[in-house]
Amino acid sequence: MARMIINQDKCIHCATCEVECPFKAVLISDKGIFSIDDELCRRCGICASVCPMDAITKEE
Ligand code: SF4
Ligand code: SF4
Q: Which mutation among 7, 17, 23, 54 tests ligand 2's pocket best, with the greatest number of atoms within 8 A of CB?
């Protein structure tokens, strides 16, 4: 199944994806690392479209 992946080398921790995700699927670890919860994510692609760094991609 496809899943959304955050490229940690590109992420600048702006939190835009976390704010814009309608399903609260973007998680922030206590170390400030952003990730996407596969159970909550519906693959709508909004996070990828709003990320200023193009850090989020859909992987098959
Ligand atoms: S929108 Fe992009 S750069 Fe900003 S926190 Fe999310 S993945 Fe990182
Ligand atoms: S694809 Fe949609 S549901 Fe999944 S993390 Fe991005 S904005 Fe949230």
A: 23
